[in-house]
């Protein structure tokens, strides 16, 4: 009867996750996995048989694999502790403490999964979200971080500003000095900017020679002061910046589009200024 109830509950929970998956925060999935671990422990305690223990020992590794593959490190560790302690307490309460060898085997298996698979999954997620050349977030990693910060800003009422940075004349560096030099410039620039930004600022390579910077709890006016700190006289390149405040009911794409519009106006003004400098000598010689 207990197994039937647990099975039916698992099916219902799976259907709910399948239908509402995109709307469920990560904490919700962690709580579901924790409930599964506690339910497995309750099965041992209730059944107080070797059969119940074996059923639980079979279910635990699958829960650990799921947690290690999808959860952040914190969730994986919590899940490992919950399984180890829950299974041990269940064996004692169920009167099965004499089979401690099963607890040792299950615990060793669970922590092996949590450590090895968890580390591998975290490494793969980091690689998937990181630009290999600069070590900054890529477009996908920035999207994840930006959505999280936008939700925090909406709850806290803090302002959120996005800056789009486009390198000036980077194509000429690639054309005249080669792509190896261009790649080195991008890598040095990413490292220099990371060192000069505040803790909590999120910088990403948005593609090619364009970067995007998310500044939590910062107004557009405050963003100007942050951006001024990015200049490094040792780097042989300059850049133009477009700034936009990310409004509460606005999508990330809409905010970046406004920042891009500001960027294009800045670059256009620079081109007109440089063109004026080019014709000045000609005018003075007429």
Could you please describe the fold and organization of this structure?
The chain has ten helices and four strands; from the N terminus they run ααααααβααββαβα. Helix 1 packs antiparallel against helix 2 (26-47) and helix 3 runs parallel beside helix 5 (100-128). Mean pLDDT is 80; it is low at 278-286. Helices cover 70% and strands 10% of the residues. The protein has 286 residues and is of the alpha+beta class.
Q: Short description, anyone?
A:
The protein has 286 residues and is α+β, with helices and mostly antiparallel strands. It is built from 10 helices and 4 strands; from the N terminus they run H-H-H-H-H-H-E-H-H-E-E-H-E-H. The chain has 2 domains: 2-128; 139-285, Alpha-Beta Plaits, CATH 3.30.70.
Strand content: 5-15%
Order of helices and strands: HHHHHHEHHEEHEH
Number of strands: 4
CATH superfamily of the largest domain, by name, is Reverse transcriptase/Diguanylate cyclase domain
CATH class of the largest domain: Alpha Beta
Helical residues, percent: 55-70%
Largest sheet entry: 4 strands, antiparallel
Q: Please tell me how large the radius of gyration is.
A: 27 Å
Low-confidence stretches: 278-286
Please name the CATH topology of the largest domain.
Answer: Alpha-Beta Plaits
What key attributes describe this structure?
4 strands; Alpha-Beta Plaits; disordered C terminus; 286 residues; 2 domains; alpha+beta
């Amino acid at each position: 009867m207990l197994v039937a109830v647990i099975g039916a509950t698992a099916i219902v929970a799976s259907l709910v996750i399948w239908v509402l998956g995109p709307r469920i925060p990560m904490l919700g999935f962690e709580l579901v996995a924790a409930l599964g671990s506690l339910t497995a422990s309750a099965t041992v305690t209730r059944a107080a048989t070797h059969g119940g223990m074996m059923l639980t020992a079979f279910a635990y590794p699958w829960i650990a694999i799921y947690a290690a593959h999808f959860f952040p490190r914190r969730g994986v560790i919590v899940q490992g502790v919950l399984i180890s302690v829950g299974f041990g307490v269940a064996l004692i309460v169920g009167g099965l403490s004499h089979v401690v060898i099963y607890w040792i085997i299950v615990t060793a298996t669970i922590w092996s999964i949590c450590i090895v698979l968890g580390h591998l999954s975290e490494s793969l997620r980091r690689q998937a979200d990181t630009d290999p050349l600069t070590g900054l977030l890529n477009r996908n990693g920035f999207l994840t971080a930006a959505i999280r910060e936008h939700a925090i800003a909406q709850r806290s009422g803090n302002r959120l500003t996005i800056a789009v940075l486009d390198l000036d004349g980077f194509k000429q560096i690639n054309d005249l000095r080669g792509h190896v030099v261009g790649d080195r410039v991008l890598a040095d620039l990413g490292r220099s900017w990371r060192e000069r930004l505040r803790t909590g600022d999120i910088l990403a390579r948005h593609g090619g020679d364009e970067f995007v910077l998310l500044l939590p709890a910062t107004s557009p006016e405050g963003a100007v002061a942050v951006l001024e700190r990015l200049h490094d006289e040792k780097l042989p390149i300059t850049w133009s910046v477009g700034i936009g405040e990310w409004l509460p009911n606005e999508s990330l794409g809409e905010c970046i589009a406004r920042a891009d519009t500001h960027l294009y106006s800045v670059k256009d003004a620079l081109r007109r200024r440089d063109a004026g400098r080019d014709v000045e000598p000609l005018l003075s010689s007429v």
